[in-house]
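REQUEST ID: PR-0412
SUBMITTED BY: lab tech R.K.
PRIORITY: routine
TASK: structure prediction, single protein chain
INPUT:
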Amino acid sequence: MSRRKVSDEERQEFEKDFREARPIRPVTAKRPAKKKAASAKPSGVNGGTEDRLRKGQLEPDAKLDLHGMTEAAAYRALSRFLNGARQRGNRLILVVTGKGNPRKDESASWMTSPHGVLKQMVPRWLKEPELAPMIASIKSAHVRHGGDGALYVYLRKS
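STATUS: complete
OUTPUT:
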């Protein structure tokens, strides 16, 4: 069987139809996969415990109040306290830093030195290599435990 010859008229009609052809379904570019939210990283605390912490339903096993301490004294106290709490098997620690001086009088004598230093420094200290391995989670405390002036420190199991 020999092939049939295509006429010029058929060729022109084919080329015209081919140029006008459109896909049955429009082609859409693939979207990149969505990245998980930043909060999806493991915090070391399960969801139920996380919710109970947020609602203030867990009572801290121990409490450390850093009010009135210098920065150096507060760091030593925090380090010793967390090591001792971990040895005792405590899991939830409440660290009270205070909110800093809420007064707005910039010329007052207490405003000559930085205020709220411990509130800023304690979360940094807890992330340092010496203390970070023993900590599962750090959260701002519930209002009934001190609110913004305190932190929940959830220790890892020893």
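NOTES: Strands lie at 62-65, 92-96, 135-140, 150-155.
REVIEWED BY: pending
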